[in-house]
Structure to design on (195 residues):
């Protein structure tokens, strides 16, 4: 069963609707024991890094998430807080992925980066990218971006290279919203469920 962490600053309903389409059992929860026992964990997010991390601390979930050994998927802000820190509110993150999340340097382009953009596959061998192809399009809404480093499995371009999918060990993240990205997003969610 997938545990979807209810951070109260997330796009929970649209993520739940997308998971229902994968026909995988799930529950939305803040219960540490349910999260520990789940086969997979999703950390969705829309909003502000500082508010999201504050909520996780209030719920006592920071050490729980850091210790997970099953597949974990952070979505949008949920991906960004997997990193060491964020410029958004000068916020310490979960410290699972190395680096600092920073504001997008897209001179002359509007922020947030909102809408459809294409994927470049930096690590096409990842099981998360099975059936995903160069220039497949996914839906973004964000003003901050993770660093381009060894964790990047796919990227997009918006004034600069933007990590689109990241991963290390059992932790993965999508900067875009797979739940809003049509068949491509659903494929990525199905690939995650199959890990």
């Amino acid at each position: 069963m997938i545990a979807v962490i209810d951070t109260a600053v997330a796009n929970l309903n649209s993520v739940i609707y997308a998971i229902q389409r994968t026909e995988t059992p799930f529950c939305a929860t803040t219960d540490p024991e349910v999260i520990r026992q789940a086969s997979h964990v999703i950390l969705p997010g829309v909003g502000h890094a500082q508010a999201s991390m504050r909520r996780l601390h209030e719920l006592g979930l920071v050490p729980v998430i850091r210790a997970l050994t099953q597949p974990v998927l952070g979505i949008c802000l949920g991906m960004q807080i997997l990193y060491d820190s964020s410029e958004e509110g000068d916020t310490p993150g979960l410290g699972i992925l190395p680096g600092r999340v920073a504001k997008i340097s897209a001179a002359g382009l509007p922020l947030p980066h909102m809408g459809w953009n294409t994927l470049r596959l930096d690590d096409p061998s990842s099981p998360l990218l099975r059936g995903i192809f160069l220039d497949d399009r996914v839906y973004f809404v964000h003003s901050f971006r993770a660093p381009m480093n060894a964790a990047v499995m796919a990227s997009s371009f918006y004034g600069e290279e933007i990590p689109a999918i990241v991963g290390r060990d059992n932790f993965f993240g999508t900067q875009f919203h797979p739940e809003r990205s049509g068949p491509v997003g659903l494929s990525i969610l199905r690939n995650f469920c199959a890990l």
In short: The chain has six helices and 14 strands. The two ends are 12 Å apart (CA to CA).
